[in-house]
Amino acid sequence: MSEAVSHDSHHDDHGPAKGLTRWLFTTNHKDIGTLYLIFSLIMFFTGGAMALIIRAELFQPGLQFVDPHFFNQLTTMHALLMVFGAVMPAFVGLANWLLPMMIGAPDMALPRMNNWSFWILPFAFAMLISTLFMQGGGPAGGWTLYPPLVLQTGDAFPFMIFAIHLMGISSIMGSINVIVTILNMRAPGMTLLKMPLFVWTWLITAYLLLAVMPVLAGAVTMLLTDKYFGTSFFLGAGGGDPVLFQHIFWFFGHPEVYIMILPAFGVVSQIIPTFARKPLFGYEAMVYATATIAFLSFIVWAHHMFTSGMPIAGQMFFMFATMLIAIPTAVKVFNWTATMWRGEMTFETPMLFAVAFVILFTIGGFSGLMLAIVPADYQYHDTYFVVAHFHYVLVPGAVFSIMAATYYWLPKWTGKMYNETLGKTHFWLSMIGVNVLFFPQHFLGLAGMPRRIPDYAIQFADFNMVSSIGALIFGFSQLFFVWVIIDCVRNGKQATSQVWEGAEGLEWTLPSPAPYHSFETAPEIK
Amino acid sequence: MAHAANDSYYVPHGSHWPLVGSVGLFTMLAGAANWLNGSSIGVYMLAIGALTIIYMVFGWFGTVIRESEAGIYNDDVDISFRMGMMWFIFSEIMFFAVFFGVLFYARTISIPWLGGDSNNFFTNTLLWENFTAEWPTNGPGNMGGEFEPMPPWPLPTLNTIILLTSGATITAAHHAIKAGHRSLLTTFLGLTWVLGFIFMACQAYEYYEAYAHLNLTLSSGMYGATFFMLTGFHGLHVTIGAIILLVIWLRCLKGHFTPEHHFGFEAAAWYWHFVDVVWLGLYIFVYWL
Ligand code: HEM
Ligand SMILES: [Cu+2]
Question: What are residue B115's phi and psi, to 5 degrees?
Answer without folding.
Answer: -85, 5
